[in-house]
Amino acid sequence: MKNFSKYSVLALASVLFFSCGNSQKGQAETAKTGTEAVATDSLSKAAAQLGKVEFAESAFDFGQVKEGAEVKHTFVLKNTGDAPVILSKVTASCGCTQPEFSKSPILPGGTSDIHVTFKSEGQVGKQQKIITIQSNASNSMTTVQLKGEVLAK
């Protein structure tokens, strides 16, 4: 019986020792999973509260113009998101195309204009100019196009 008691106590001590380690490990994993869930929820809420840029038209076809003519067009964008949108940069794919835009915040449901001027001098043939819009919106980089054909003088 003495031998049995020694072995029983040893076995019981081993079980307690190993189960305590597993218990703490389980608690650490639960805490880690809980923290990750909170972080994921916060990111989801932040993403849901971003602005979103949508254009009334993604491309404008100016048809045919004579070389030397200036083509002007206004692209209207709307903030369909839940937070203000600020345009940080608007660029064109060619120096012959000049965009102008407001840096004022566009409130949810609000609109803003991007005025584009294309100078056709030296640009004979089919044209496709890409205007890239960068902002703090959920779709942080969007594009619109100006296209048409420039006829030689």
UniProtKB/TrEMBL annotation:
InterPro entries cross-referenced by the UniProt entry:
DUF1573, Ig-like_fold
Q: Does the keyword Signal apply?
A: yes
Cited PROSITE patterns? PROKAR_LIPOPROTEIN (PS51257)
Q: Do you know which Pfam families this protein is assigned to?
A: DUF1573
Keyword list, A-Z? Signal
Do you know which PANTHER family this protein is assigned to?
A: LIPOPROTEIN-RELATED (PTHR37833), SIGNAL PEPTIDE PROTEIN (PTHR37833:SF1)
Which named protein is this? DUF1573 domain-containing protein
- Species per Swiss-Prot/TrEMBL record: Sphingobacterium athyrii
